[in-house]
Amino acid sequence: MEFSIKQSSPEKLKSACLVVGVFEGGKLSPAAQVLDKAAEHALSDVIARGDMSGKATSTLLLHKLPGIAAERVLLVGLGKASELNNKTSLDIIDATFKALHATPAKDAALYITDEGVGKDAAWVIKQAVLSAAEHAFRADSMKSKPSKAATLKNITFASLEKPSTALKNTLEQAAAISRGMGLTKALANLPGNICTPTYLAANALALDKAHKSIKTTVLEEKDMQKLGMGSFLSVTRGSEQPAKLITMEYSGADKKQKPIVLVGKGITFDTGGISLKPGADMDEMKYDMCGAASVFGVMQAIAEMGLKLNVVGIIPTCENMPSGKATKPGDIVTSMSGQTIEILNTDAEGRLILCDALTYAAKFNPDTVIDIATLTGACVIALGHVASGMFSNEVKLAQELIAAGEQTHDRVWQMPLWEDYQPLLDSNFADMANIGGRAGGTITAACFLARFTKDYRWAHLDIAGTANLSGKNKGATGRPVPLLTQYLINRTAAK
Ligand code: BES
Ligand code: MN
Ligand code: ZN
């Protein structure tokens, strides 16, 4: 999909479909007023006859209006200006692209930035780009007859006023974020028999090849052995697929600048291991690499943007399988940090691969480390599918992540890392157990990770409820790529 931005008078703009807004009660947005005048009041007539109420998310497609160069005009209801908030704005944008994609139009010009669709033009453009891409996304590449690609290919954000350079920059960034989300979703939706650790490693090497600014290295099991990653290696023991530790280094700033490190959980399939999961919906455990997939999406997006920062993406990736060789409940392993772990449940494997990757992350002398993981089912119970769980050992970092989440509507909710929870991880035989019981399951998982991240500023995102949808709409969401890229963009602005 191609996006552009320009100033133009709506009646003269040649397009397969123009989009303009109408407020509840029939008041026309500025661009709609211009069109109405040029088209002998065709718009106000339609409203007077009651075909368009202006209710938020309502749409009406008009054809061949007199005096208007565009083939179609799509009226979009904006609701009451006083009732507009982020949620209604997003619903309006979503309804707009749903209606546009239902037409045969190959291109569209939207007058939605200077007239009350959302809080400001930059916000509207960003969300519109993501919505356009979401509606064009197809998840059926593996069907023998995949559905047709979306016909809508070119989107113009048109305005009566001249767009600023900052707004053009925002559009470029939004397009890069949408492509990053596309990569994240495509990887995440792949089944476990195709998207193996080896497949992810090949993908990381492909990103290296495509971008001069990205350097990828892949460590093999024997390398991890040398590093003492006994915890990570204990998870892959039952699998026939070799584990990989992928590192992608993006250099966008001076070498001396400390990098921000992103660590993504890359379990390409989680059976639970010997602590086997129940059968129902187990297929969804192919999504247990969504943290890793989001790191891929972010790395690609920032490389396309040429963001002036150094960022390292680290992906520990393997399968969690039962077998005669698999790790058993009660087994004790030694992590790279030297701390020993009693594995009481082999299904709590995410923290076991992450703890070694987090110890490894310190080698990069990081400014900040953020890990992203589909870590606990308990997080889905706590926050549902709306907010990602967020933990941090620093107040400022937590605030920055909350802000970036609000900005992009890819929101997080902070949960406590209080010492009071730590005793739940006590083990009679090792330095710690890998589970803390049913109570506060999301928190004790984070507390486990906190024992490995004491030397740097750190945040943990539990995306178990937000990375993918279940049931009829099963599929990856591309979250938290918007949140993370916005956080990184904000970090460059702060410098
Ligand atoms: N990958 C799962 C967490 C998960 C569950 C993500 C459901 C998305 C949906 C993780 O490895 C896991 O199995 N966690 C266990 C931890 C428990 C054994 C302490 C869980 O949540 O049940
Ligand atoms: Mn598990
Ligand atoms: Zn898992």
How many β-strand runs? 20
The CATH first-level class of the largest domain comes to Alpha Beta
Global mean pLDDT: 97
Number of helices: 14
- What molecules are bound to this protein? ligand BES, manganese (II) ion, zinc ion
What are the low-pLDDT stretches, counting only 5+ consecutive residues below 50? none
Describe this structure in words.
With 495 residues, the chain is α/β, with parallel strands linked by helices. The chain has 2 domains: 2-159, Leucine Aminopeptidase, subunit E, domain 1; 177-494, Aminopeptidase (3-Layer(aba) Sandwich), CATH 3.40.630.10. 35% of the residues lie in helices and 20% in strands. It is built from 14 helices and 20 strands. Strands 7, 8, 9, 10, 11, 14, 15, 16 and 18 form a 9-stranded mixed β-sheet that branches. A hairpin with an 8-residue loop joins strand 3 and strand 4. Helix 3 packs across helix 4 (121-136) and helix 4 (121-136) runs parallel beside helix 5. The longest helix is centred in the middle third of the chain and has 25 residues, at 165-189. The site of ligand BES has 16 residues, from helix 11.
